[in-house]
Amino acid sequence: MSAAVHTQSEFNAGLLDFLRASPTPFHATRALAERLLAAGFELLHEGDSWLLEPGKRYLVTRNDSSLIAFVYGRSNLVDTGIRMLGAHTDSPCLKVKPRAELNRRGYFQLGVEVYGGALLAPWYDRDLSLAGRVTYRDEQQQIASTLVDFKRPVAVVPSLAIHLDREANSNRSINAQKDIVPLLLQLPAEEGSLPDFRSLLHAELQASQPQLAVSQVLDYEISLYDTQPPAIVGLEQDFIASARLDNLLSCYVGLQALLEADDQVSSLLICTDHEEVGSASCCGAKGPMLEQFLMRLLPETEARIRVIERSMMISADNAHGIHPNFMEKHDENHGPLLNHGPVIKVNSNQRYATTSETSAFFRMLCEAAEVPVQTFVARTDMGCGSTIGPVVASEVGVKTIDVGCPTFAMHSIRELAGVQDGWNLYRASVGFFRYTAAPMALSSAL
Question: Which N-terminal stretch is annotated as signal sequence (predicted)?
Fold first, then answer.
């Protein structure tokens, strides 16, 4: 089954479908896996014995929220290396606490924890829903997990009226413990028990997945998300507005590019969870998932090191476009524009993993694909975010470049990107996965 996209509009239509299907990292991983399986990838299980064969395509997941997809090329791995593209499945959000139920003056609310570096103000006055993973006991007393998505608006975080806070537009701070608690229900005036959130999840599963025969919900990992769907916006339809563009846009780019990979050489897509909180988990970039996959692929140490030396990783994560209202927040020579091409991200303190070699190779890919390319360097007097790039480079030893599509409002509940940039990064990534020589077989400077 071919899943090729041939036009920018076709690419963006698929992106919007993917974003709608992916309110949480669990759903994003499932959406990626469904598309890969439909394209002929074989699902592997980490607990099974593997016998990987050149010419085949494989897929493995971990924690339901991270994924590796691998095209095993027919050419010798030591000769060609592996083309790797990495992104992350998680985004800043509000996560429901384990004992979340609150009754405040007859209003049923859920206690939440802020996940990652979220911009909190945009969460006010949004039509919110709930989604995530639920772990339950079935009627045979077996423990299993499933995904849930309420889909409909079930919660809201109302703003405080300006009449009660006259400095709201000039001096309002947000206390994450008490000011951002979502409202779900007005309780009856008469005395009654507080709704149990696990019971609400049980009822939702019975309604949406009755075949599961859920006996008891034991625990959950549930997030709130905005039900406003992604959209192409602007007077001339220049922009994509959506939640979770950071970094599902890059996941989708990697997916579509891998589906176009050359079968003669080996290519790999890795999309990991927990980047927004440091990647330190069994399924995060600091965990052993990629290293363990490479060890199973290449058990012999010397061969594995030789392959890694000839390989390259593109760490794809969104970049900060220069905001027309806040231009002073950028270095004057490094302010990427939306719809002007993917951005190479550079930081001398290794917050990004880009080197002159990996940057030069990516520029060559963009030139061959007739894709414009930009550069981002943070202001010297400002801090700089990071990505999975330095993590993978240090953990695995693969030469890495950090790139991304320029965006506005990063870490907001609704971010903004250009309609051309994901398409252009996809075109460059297709060239990467079709590059038949070893990407990093370079002559030494010594």
Answer: none
